[in-house]
Structures are given as structure tokens and as C-alpha cells.
Amino acid sequence: MELPSQKERELFLDIATESVMTAGIILQDLVGQLEKIEEKGRPGDLVTEADKKAESSVLKILKSRVPSHQILAEESGKLGTEGSDYLWAIDPLDGTTNYAHGYPASSVSIGLLFKGIPLVGAVYNPFRQELFRGAKGLGATLNYRPIQVSKTKELNKSLLVTGFAYDRRETPDTNYPEFCYLTHLTQGVRRSGSASVDLTDVACGRLDGYWERGLSPWDIAAGIVILEEAGGKVTAYDESPLIIESGRLLATNGEIHHGLSQALDEALPWLKKFYS
Ligand code: IPD
Ligand code: CA
Ligand code: CA
Predict the structure, then answer these.
(1) Is the per-residue pLDDT at 223 higher than 80?
(2) Ligand 1 geometric centre to CA of 166 (Å)
(3) Helices and strands: H and E segment counts in the chain
């Protein structure tokens, strides 16, 4: 597939950057001052005025800069021009639960998909003051310095991260067996509570791999392109090509990809045996 020109990719990356930085400042200003925290439906799935204000600031920028593109924003849904090849996936506050508790692990995550493929991404964590950027063919950076994934080759030397979706009380697919088994096999499994923080932490080599289910395109679109451009690999759990709408992804430094995919498959039988 022919990609948009380098100049266009650079322009879109700058628009994504301006958007995450603008929203990030709003998040910084409102932290610890929330008057209203609501549940969106499922227990624990929160929305605050910070999510809403941050999202409006992004929508304002995108509507003026790329009016012919389509938008998928977590709090506002689908907007913009239907049928466009471009779709901006916006999570104005990824890690809302952390944010509502004052736990500093959240980011603004904005990814641009071109014909369904992550093309450009920017993730800004206002608490660490870290700006991750990436665009297909242009590499990935943290605060404008190039980044690379780790070189860890063995699962037993790796540090991983995962998460648990809000539907965990309603589905047998809880991710609990996988979490236990990988905790057993590796140097540890962390749970940050922000998918974009997880993906970008793998991208810059702090962590070696990440898996999760029950995600939405706005959680992962930006992180995917940043991680791939940092030399990482992103697929479905079984290593087949990722379908972003499936919400289930395996994202690693590439070296441990196959081992982690196999381990995910072994988790449930292992847990049953462990407790029998
Ligand atoms: C959530 C975070 C979390 C993941 C959830 C997401 P939100 O996003 O990324 O790490 O486990 O599945 O929904 O609700 O904080 O934007
Ligand atoms: Ca999210
Ligand atoms: Ca969110």
C-alpha cells in the first residue's frame, strides 16, 4: 500500500503532537481538583471533567487542521467526514482511574490510522513530562531523542506489563491465568493502568513485552506505531497480523515475541494443573 508522503506524515505527526501537548496541559491543571467523577456503565469505568475538557481541546485542533478526516474519540464517538482514508483515534486521558486517584500514570494518546493501519502516533504523559512520537518510516522518539526496544532475549529475564479490562467481572476471559503464569515465568509482570504508557514503556526499552485484551483503538493506535518504529513487534496473541478492532494485542521487543505467544497459550492449562 502506498503511504502518504513523508511531508504529509511529518505534518500529521506535528498535528498529533500539538494535540497531545494541549490536552496534557489541561490534565496537569485539573489533577487533584476534580469535582465530578462518573461511572460510564461498567463498574470502575470512569469519566471525569478532565477527560471531557482534554478531548474538546483535541477536537478543536483536529477540526480546524484536518477537517476532511474522520475522528474516533473515546468520549464523543465517531465524528468528521465518513469515508475518509484517515481516522484519528483519540484517548484524551488513558489511565483515568489512576488520574482520579492522583496516581501519576496516565497519558493523552492520539493515533492516526490510514486505511486502517496505524500511521502516526503521539503519546504525552504530563506527569513524567514525556512525549513519545512515531510515524511509519520516520522512527520513534522520546522527548525528541530516538528510542529503541530492549534487547532481552529470554522470557525468564524479561519484565512485562499487562492490564485487565473493565468487563473482567462479566467474562471468563479475565486475563488472570495469563497474569499468574507469566509472573511465574519472568522477572515480573507490572500493571500500570494505562495501555499507552505500557506500549511506550516497551518502545523505549523499560519493559520487554505487553499483552492485553478488551482494548479499544484509541488505547493503542498511537502506541502501536511508536513501538513498531522503535523496532518492536505487534501482533495478535497467536502472532497472526493484528486486527486493531479485536482489542487484543501482543507487543514486544521482537526477541521474546514467540515465547510470550506460546506462554499465553499455555496459561490456562498450567493454572488448572497448579491448583489441582
Ligand atoms: C484503560 C487503560 C487500562 C486498560 C483498560 C483501558 P482508560 O483506559 O488503558 O490500562 O487496562 O482496558 O480501558 O479507561 O483509562 O482510558
Ligand atoms: Ca484508554
Ligand atoms: Ca480514556
Answers:
(1) yes
(2) 8
(3) 7, 15
Task: Give which of 92, 103, 123, 90 is closest to 192, Cα–Cα.
Answer: 103
pLDDT at 271 over 80: yes
Query: Residue 67 burial by CB count (10 A; 0-12/13-18/19+): exposed, middle or buried?
Result: exposed
Domain count, the chain: 2
Nearest atom in ligand 1 to 94's CA? 16
Supply the range of the domain harboring residue 94.
Answer: 6-146
Q: How far is CA 191 from the centre of its chain?
A: 13
Provide residues with CB under 6 Å of ligand 1: 91, 94-97, 163-165, 193-195, 214-215, 219
Ligand 1 atom with the shortest distance to the CA of 214: 12
> Residues 115, 69: contact at Cβ < 8 Å?
no
Q: What is the pLDDT of residues 160-169, one digit of tens each?
A: 999 999 888 8
Task: Give the mutation target among 27, 194, 199 for probing the ligand 1 site: most ligand atoms within 8 A of CB.
Answer: 194
Instruction: State the residue for C-alpha cell 494505562.
Output: 194
CATH number at residue 37: 3.30.540.10
Q: How do residues 232-267 score in pLDDT, each as one tens digit?
A: 999 999 999 999 999 999 999 999 999 999 999 999
Tell me which of 118, 146, 174 is where a domain ends. Answer: 146
